[in-house]
From TrEMBL:
Its EC number is 5.1.1.3. It comes from Aeromonas molluscorum 848. This is Glutamate racemase. InterPro entries: Asp/Glu/hydantoin_racemase, Asp/Glu_race, Asp/Glu_racemase_AS_1, Asp/Glu_racemase_AS_2, Glu_race. The keyword NADP does not apply. SUPFAM superfamilies: Aspartate/glutamate racemase. The active site is at residues 74, 186.
Amino acid sequence: MQVANILVFDSGMGGLSVYREIRQCLPGHNYYYCFDNANFPYGELSESALITACVRLVSRVVTEQAIDLVVIACNTASTIALPSLRAALTIPVVGVVPAIKPAAALTRNGCIGLLATPGTVARPYTHELIAQFAPGKRVLLKGATELVIEAERKLAGEAVDMALLRHVLADWLEGSDRPDTLVLGCTHFPLLDAEIRQLMPDCQLVDSGAAVAKRVTHLLSSHAMAATTGIPEAHAYCTRLDEEAKKITAPLQAWGLSTLTEVLF
């Protein structure tokens, strides 16, 4: 069997939600999950600093691990750094975008909520997606950086602050004009899907994971790769292996990522 080396990249743990979808669809490949915790969260970086960090780090891992395909599993990085990454690399680079199109097809009452980071909510690209794929729909926008931190804490084994989550979602929990479809527009937020469903049990949750997995499947079938053999592997890399990072070694192993190593760039 021809086995691909697939790199899934994010600033933190959110990309695991995309990695999970891809690996469920394509279990027979080698996976490398790299997170830039030294620069987390990306929403606080300038665009030039974000592009520089992404290009340098991703290029380093691509070279060292003979990567065949890269997935930028971060909405912020995807909207800012994809052109530079594609210019720097000769292999396919897949990004993520908020799942506005499938949400527009699913909504019954015509009201969609987009829960993302403040940067994603504010970017013209997001508003272009809404105009293109959800004309005539009411799309309510909410930026919530604090939920990125909650997702990271949950992965580390801490309890989710349900009072905080309820506060963030408060205006979508009551009233006749509340969304019946919720776009999780940050890859961290599917990690909180169980808690969000507790508060919004009648709302359909939509994220980009399945669409990205479908795109990766198509690209792997249409691009020639060097054949590799052996049992598929999965490893994690970070940019700062401090005590906080070491705390998530066990959770990463539970996701099938057998080792956590610091990558210098």
